[in-house]
Inverse folding.
């Protein structure tokens, strides 16, 4: 066994022996980069250190604790630290460390930096930055003790919690320790080879202060901060920080380092010259190239030269789009998740489905030559390349208007980017070779317009003929659902044929002729909505009220149905008791009145069982597969409402809507033509109310297609699991399309399913930006706001009104519910969240815009709502008292101290 190994004998392949930090430093030395001399106390020494029955059993007990049980994890970690502190190193380990120190210690008075280097740290998906201990200015005689302290720190509370959160087994991790000669730094700090704030990979950022880098890392000073364009060396900006102190190696005394107050002149003195800054960034670029990804680098400046003391991947960066553009120009992408108010990561097969489906639609329009890669993936999400459209000036403003309705931050970021870099959005001239493709696209679009126009006209006229019945709506949109899904998805004879049919998009012309004209009344309603908001801009609350109180609205039908089910439970006390005790549907069916309850529930699932939370993600169970969310909502309804109250609320909203319509009519009735204007406004509002409630019907029936696609792909997973190719049917979601087809044809699967599962889980922890560029930048334009309360979180107000109440932070609606009077705080709000709106007093959502599902539901129910509130589920805790203003788009946390997530 090798208990110690020199840094210059290590490479990146020695992760298991030297840990992440040690292996990375060895790679830097091999590449000829300036690294202080030193060695690593290897994981062999750690394994010998922990090799007692008591310690091994304690680690196993820690691994058996549920990751959400923080108290038990803390207690288990404390037990382990106590056992390890009582443990001495074996004699041969001590001898190896003493021998390595003798070889390294060539200068009298040398001290060391002793740093933890766990096998699970400094990795692309888990940095563990700050989770383990490090020590500076350590005397040779104290090194062994500090090595033990580093090994003990593998089980600090924060490191244990971090591993649990990331699904890393404690028994699978070992600790090596890096021992480097201490650099008596004149200045030190951190270099990021990408801008960690904006995500831009072309910009490096540097934090610098006098003395050791500990002052910067521990945030004890405000360091100088610089941004540098890597390719040109241009210094974009350099801000001199207020550096009150410096940390330096101790010249004697009890501690290894000491804090030194800087003079008034030094505090505002620039740390790095322009030449030094460029030299440092060039070093960083070499290191980034060596490791193949952006790096977080700690550096020190001594005697005019730089030393690299550690380098690790920047794990907080959102990934770059894949594939990257082929034209070497800047491209900008819009998140499909933000467009649909669902920002969670999706597994590979679902990503492949949406890429195939959307690319197929675009190619059938003939846009392929002008839009070669319309859909990309990044961070296990789908992004749409808007660059070709943004380069056409006539399309730019209308497109930004549409995007603004879906996501105000995305539109603001796009405007700011176009203003800052206009040259990237200049359209290249048409070449002779591109004319045939342009003619083909024009011919296809024109043909579609001619085919669809008559039906559009009929649809528009129908909008003025009065409201259709629910049965007529179901029949109309049922045709839409049938045209949405290729026949083979449900009728093919084998799992392989059905899976391939999922990835086959039908004729776009037939689909548009069958489907789009049916939505003409809805387009008309949206136009009327825009007109009312402009005409009565000074009274948005009254305009909102006009669009409420529709029993035929899909969302209202869902909530009324759940309320009716709760009323059935109220009629049967045994059922109500079973519900309150958390019984399953199967258990409820066995008590008195259970059969009636089950029949009502099944009738509901017949109409709505194909819906789900995050239903764009085909891997997610539909309500009919997992009705837990629905049962939780019914249970909460029993507690918070009386029988029939849900229907009475809708009737009250309808009465309010009629009064609001009367108010708007009255405002139009002035002057000589007042009576005429009044009748016109009355007819417009009637048409609006006869059509606007169909806004959710397209998505509702499209969701039937989602459910069919899901079942076909899951059926292929069942087949492969039965054949022993997959461990379980759900593993199919972690295959790519071509891998699935090959497996169904009998080829072996070589994919690491569990690694992909972990990757998707990791990406799900990253906040999805609504806008992303090919350089990795996440543009965030400033939204102009005035009179905003201090400390308020800003978003987009989508439903007027002000409400205060306790927050209820919900990440997964299948595992939580909302009690009466609580304000729902959620990462997304697609239709699967609808049941939670039933009891909420207001709503705060991290994504969305005025036309997103959550916004429409909030306005329908009269709930004050603010969307596109960045990191709301992190900044707000359950139980905190908050105030939301749906008009101004602000969220105030009134009770900072209480609450928990």
């Amino acid at each position: 066994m090798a208990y110690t190994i020199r840094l210059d004998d290590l490479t990146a392949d020695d992760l298991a022996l030297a840990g992440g930090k040690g292996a990375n430093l060895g790679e830097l030395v091999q590449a000829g980069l300036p690294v202080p001399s030193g060695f690593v106390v290897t994981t062999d020494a750690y394994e010998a250190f922990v090799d007692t029955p008591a310690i091994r059993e304690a680690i196993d007990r820690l691994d058996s604790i549920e990751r959400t049980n923080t108290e038990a994890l803390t207690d288990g970690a404390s037990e382990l630290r106590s056992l390890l502190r009582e443990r001495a190193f074996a004699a041969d380990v001590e001898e190896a460390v003493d021998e390595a120190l003798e070889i390294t210690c060539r200068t009298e008075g040398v001290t060391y930096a002793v740093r933890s280097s766990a096998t699970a740290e400094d990795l692309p998906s888990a940095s563990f930055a700050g989770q383990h201990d490090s020590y500076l200015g350590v005397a040779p005689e104290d090194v062994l003790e500090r090595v033990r302290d580093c090994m003990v720190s593998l089980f600090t509370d924060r490191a244990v919690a971090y591993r649990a959160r990331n699904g890393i087994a404690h028994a699978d991790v070992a600790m090596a320790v890096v021992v480097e000669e201490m650099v008596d730094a004149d200045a030190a700090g951190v270099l990021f080879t990408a801008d960690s704030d904006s995500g831009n990979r072309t910009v490096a950022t540097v934090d610098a202060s006098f003395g050791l880098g500990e002052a910067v890392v521990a945030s004890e000073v405000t360091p100088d901060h610089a941004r540098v364009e890597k390719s040109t060396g241009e210094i974009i900006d350099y801000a001199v920080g207020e550096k009150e102190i410096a940390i330096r190696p101790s010249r004697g005394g009890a501690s290894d380092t000491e804090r030194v107050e800087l003079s008034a002149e030094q505090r505002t003195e620039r740390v790095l010259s322009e030449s030094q800054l460029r030299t440092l960034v060039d070093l960083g670029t070499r290191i980034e190239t060596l490791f193949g990804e952006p790096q977080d680098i700690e550096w020190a400046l001594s005697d005019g030269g730089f030393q690299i003391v550690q380098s690790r991947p920047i794990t907080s960066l959102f990934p770059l789009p894949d594939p990257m553009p082929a034209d070497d120009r800047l491209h900008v992408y819009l998140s499909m998740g933000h467009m649909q108010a669902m920002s969670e990561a999706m597994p590979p097969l679902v990503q492949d489905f949406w890429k195939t489906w959307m690319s197929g639609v675009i190619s059938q329009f003939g846009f392929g030559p002008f839009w070669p890669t319309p859909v990309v993936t990044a961070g296990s999400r789908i992004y749409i390349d808007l660059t070709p459209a943004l380069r056409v000036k006539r399309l730019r403003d209308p497109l930004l208007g549409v995007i603004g309705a879906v996501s105000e931050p995305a539109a603001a970021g796009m405007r700011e980017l176009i203003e800052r870099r206009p040259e990237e959005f200049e359209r290249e001239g048409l070449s002779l070779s591109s004319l045939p493709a342009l003619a083909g696209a024009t011919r296809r679009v024109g043909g579609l317009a001619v085919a669809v126009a008559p039906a559009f006209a009929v649809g528009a006229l129908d909008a003025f003929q009065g409201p259709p019945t629910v049965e007529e709506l179901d029949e109309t949109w049922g045709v839409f659902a049938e045209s949405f899904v290729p026949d083979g998805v449900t009728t093919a004879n084998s799992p392989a044929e059905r899976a391939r049919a999922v990835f086959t998009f039908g004729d776009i012309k037939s689909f548009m002729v069958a489907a789009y004209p049916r939505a003409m009344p809805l387009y008309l309603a949206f136009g009327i909505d825009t007109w009312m908001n402009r005409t009565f801009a000074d009274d948005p609350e009254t305009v909102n009220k006009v669009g409420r109180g529709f029993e035929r609205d899909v969302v209202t039908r869902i909530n009324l149905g759940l309320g009716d089910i709760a009323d059935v439970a109220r009629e049967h006390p045994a059922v109500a008791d079973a519900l309150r005790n958390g019984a399953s549907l199967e258990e409820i069916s066995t008590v008195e009145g259970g059969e009636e309850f089950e029949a009502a529930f099944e009738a509901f699932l017949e109409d709505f069982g194909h819906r789900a939370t995050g239903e764009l993600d085909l891997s997610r169970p539909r309500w009919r597969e997992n009705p837990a969310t629905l049962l939780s909502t019914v249970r909460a309804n029993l507690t918070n409402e009386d029988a029939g109250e849900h229907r009475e609320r809708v009737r009250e909203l309808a009465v309010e809507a009629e009064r609001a319509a009367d108010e708007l009519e009255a405002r139009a009735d002035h002057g000589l033509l007042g009576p005429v204007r009044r009748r016109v406004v009355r007819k417009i509002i009637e048409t609006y109310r006869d059509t606007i409630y169909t806004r959710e019907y397209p998505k509702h029936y499209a969701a039937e297609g989602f459910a069919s696609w899901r079942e076909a792909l899951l059926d292929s997973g069942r087949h492969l699991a039965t054949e022993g190719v997959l461990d379980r049917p759900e593993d199919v979601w972690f295959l790519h399309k071509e891998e699935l087809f090959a497996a169904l044809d009998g080829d072996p699967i070589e994919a690491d399913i569990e690694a992909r599962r972990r990757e998707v889980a990791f990406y799900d922890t990253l906040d999805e930006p609504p806008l992303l560029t090919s350089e990795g930048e996440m543009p965030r334009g400033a939204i102009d706001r005035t009179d905003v309360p201090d400390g308020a979180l800003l978003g987009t107000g989508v439903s007027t009104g002000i409400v205060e109440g306790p927050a209820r932070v919900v990440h997964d609606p299948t595992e939580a519910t909302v009690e009466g009077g609580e304000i729902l705080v959620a990462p997304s709000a697609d239709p699967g969240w609808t049941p939670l709106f039933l009891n909420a007093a207001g709503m705060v959502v991290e994504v969305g815009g005025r036309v997103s599902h959550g916004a429409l539901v909030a306005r329908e129910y009269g709930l004050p709502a603010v969307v596109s509130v960045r990191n709301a589920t992190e900044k707000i805790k359950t139980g905190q008292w908050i105030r939301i203003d749906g008009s101004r788009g602000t969220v105030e946390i009134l009770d900072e101290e209480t609450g928990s997530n």
